[in-house]
Amino acid sequence: MPSTASGVPPVLSRGTWPEARRIAEVLRQETVGGVLLLIGALIALVWANSPWSAAYETLRDTRVGPSSLHLDLTLSTWAADGLLAIFFFVAGLELKREFVAGDLRDPRRAAIPIAAAVGGMAVPALFFVLFNLGRDDGALSGWAIPSATDIAFALAVLAVVSTHLPAALRIFLLTLAVVDDLLAIVVIAIFYTEELAVGPLLLALVPLAVFGVLVQKRVRSWWLLLPLAAATWVLMHESGVHATVAGVLLAFTVPVVRSDAAGGPEAGPGLAEHFEHRLRPLSAGVAVPVFAFFSAGVAFGGLSGLGASATDSVALGIAVGLVAGKAVGITAATWLVSRFTRAELDESLGWPDVVGLALLGGIGFTVSLLITELAFGLGSDTYEHAKVGILAGTVAAALLATVLLRLRNRRYRAIAEEEAVDADADGIPDVYQRGPAGGSADG
């Protein structure tokens, strides 16, 4: 891979060709999922503000499931606790694969998206707190709402505006968002668990451990693994810890590379990539859009309702946090890494590209809506105002990112043409086979 004179990889460098090819496939699926997410959210918004809004609320609040297991949940709760567990399982698989077998196994490369994700969470939270200092009505419990980045939504925006975002930046955006999601799960587990039942939590470790043993033995039988995963989810739900945490824990038990008996890492994709390939379409194409449909139905209540939301410091803190907080946090963290590690920006990129990426990071939706529900509860005025803030901040961040990326579109097109130069007989673009300046095919 390319490196600077000090031996430190360039900031946002393109990485290796196999990894770029794999990530490109992931991005395509996430982009399609993002378009479906947009459709689901728009249907919910239109329906919730139509004369038939009562039907939407009835559907959202319909309860299904066995009451004996405390699982007689509303459809919106099933979407938030159940379907998003699939989303976080896939995110966990992706993150583990990146750190075990991907380009981020090099700690110097991993430090960049991790730092950017941390900065992109800390600064928006700070903005929110500053807007809500002095309130004694529990508003500060929503401090984590503007910290999340919705990768599917962000990639959908890129697909709609048809920019030629450099591959290095697209990969960085995906990695940053995955790290962001996993950090958000840690925040949810620690700060949004009101009552902890130790018994069910300890019992959840039993099916989790059995699941881990089976996948380490490369067992793929769904009729064995699915009941264990479901049992882990149910017990995690009973413990009071948000059930989506089960998805991440299950993902971390799955091996990334093949066993020595199967030929080792060179024998092809491991079980994690197999599960990811099978479940990503379900996550991006069903789980996230359905969650968006049940969560995005904000009834604005006309101009007066919008006015009340616009003057609520919770909504303002969220919107400013998503737009300004994310832009400042991600850009500043990336600059600090480049400044103090002597890493240089990849030669195909400029700092305006990083700012554009940081603005895209302000597109918060899925996890932000989830944290809003946990922080304020369903149905309260603050909950509704917070959702308006999420939508306003997300739209503003998307528009600003679109303007900047459009201005950079000519440069992006030139970079895309350079990276799409005629491939040799081996099918690997020349840009991945150059010397130190361009990187090598094997990294």
From TrEMBL:
It is found in: Cell inner membrane; Cell membrane. It catalyses: Na(+)(in) + 2 H(+)(out) = Na(+)(out) + 2 H(+)(in). One of its GO terms (cellular component) is plasma membrane. Keywords: Antiport, Cell membrane, Ion transport, Membrane, Sodium, Sodium transport, Transmembrane, Transmembrane helix, Transport. GO terms for molecular function: sodium:proton antiporter activity. It is a multi-pass membrane protein. The keyword Zinc does not apply. One of its GO terms (biological process) is regulation of pH. InterPro entries: Na/H_antiporter_dom_sf, NhaA. It holds the Pfam family Na_H_antiport_1. Coiled coil: none annotated. The chain crosses the membrane at residues 31-49, 69-90, 110-131, 143-161, 168-191, 197-215, 286-308, 314-337, 349-376, 388-407. Na(+)/H(+) antiporter that extrudes sodium in exchange for external protons. Belongs to the NhaA Na(+)/H(+) (TC 2.A.33) antiporter family. This is Na(+)/H(+) antiporter NhaA.
